[in-house]
Amino acid sequence: MNTIINPFIQNGVFPEQAIVPTSVVRSLFSPLSRDGGAVEVYGERGMGKSTILSYIINPPDEWMEYFKNHIFVFLNCQDTVIPATANQFWVQITKQLERKLETSPIKEKCLALIARSKEGLEIDHNDFHEVLDVSGEAHRKIVLVLDDFNVLIRTDPENLSSNRAFLQGLRSLTTRDSNKANLVVSTRYSLYESCKPLALPNYSAFDNGFSLCRLRFFQEKELLSLLDRVAQTGQPLFNSLERNYVAYLSGFHPQLAQIAAAQTFDYRIEVGAPLNDLSPVGEKFKNEARPIFESLFWGASEIERVLLMLVALQSLNGKVTDVNYDINDLPKVFSEKEREINDLTERGLLKRVQASPPLWDLFSPIFKWWILKEIESEDQNQLEERRKIWGNLLTQKRAEQVGKFVEFIRKNKKEIEDFGKLVLRFVGWEVPNLPSS
Known about the structure:
Elements: H1 22-32, E1 38-42, H2 49-56, H3 61-64, E2 70-76, H4 77-80, H5 86-99, H6 105-118, H7 125-137, E3 141-147, H8 160-175, E4 182-187, H9 191-194, E5 210-214, H10 220-227, H11 240-250, H12 254-271, H13 279-298, H14 302-316, H15 330-336, H16 338-346, E6 350-354, E7 359-362, H17 365-377, H18 380-393, H19 396-411, H20 413-429
Parallel strand pairs: 1-4, 1-5, 2-3, 3-4
Antiparallel strand pairs: 6-7
């Protein structure tokens, strides 16, 4: 029996297989083709930031002529810069650059700095300016590509001053008069939002000069491109039910779509294609998707989490037997928190399903179920703490109303179980079509 490798496995994507819309390709490489150009890539967890950075350090053929003299230096800040200090960053980035080089003056300069660090002396941006001077003499350009850069943005009071100095030093590599470096960073939230606590009057902000590339949920074309990877295995392409299922379950979230596709592929190998009942895949998906749901939910602000809970509660009303409670006042809550609702929608966690009166839904039915399970599982102490937070964020009337909703869910756990079964049954038999189907 021939071994068949699942084409949707996590971390199994080669740069040339990255799904990058043409408009995004231009927004990535155009700024980097000029001296000192900088790009920030940001988006929610699972949007493909690391994949995009891998794509950048391996430019496609049509862009290679602009980068034949560039040295791309990749660094995962979270996994490599330990502890997260300025000195450790400069040591690690110098080591990464040195490893990429054959014997040359640039390599010798890096080795000299590394030797100095081993003697206990610190390295800073001024030392890297010297590296840029040497690389300029060799007619080479250096591009620093920094993944998970947010771990180096430290806004706690004891680190504010030193972090400002570090960020301004890093930025100075792109603003010097010649032999400028290029810079690419990936973060969960925009540099503007992340660096706001570091801002000072009359000082140029770190994010000034960065071109923005915000990663969003898949469009239908991109999702279908992902699912077409099945052709690499010699297996039948996903049929319309299977494609629609992946879209419905994942809500077009890139990593969740990859998980749903991987589970679908494995189940097809196990029982044979095509699949008629997808419910067993949905059960597996719930478990594997949990870390992503946790990150999306707990990565939101407190008021955003309240709004996500309210949307989930609103969606549940009337969906299963005997679940009916007063939600008539919820549109007023959403109207009062329009900025937060719009931001959640922009990030893809909410989708607008009705214009007038405005109505929102969560992007994935399983995310909705997961939030309801979170509400159900809270103990009395957690609930009391949450009530205090609601009291600070909402009016007393609104906070009391939210509390009643939560109490209802906690006392009716069977309804959550029924809702979960309803979602999976819907997934198995009545999946909505993709728009082009």
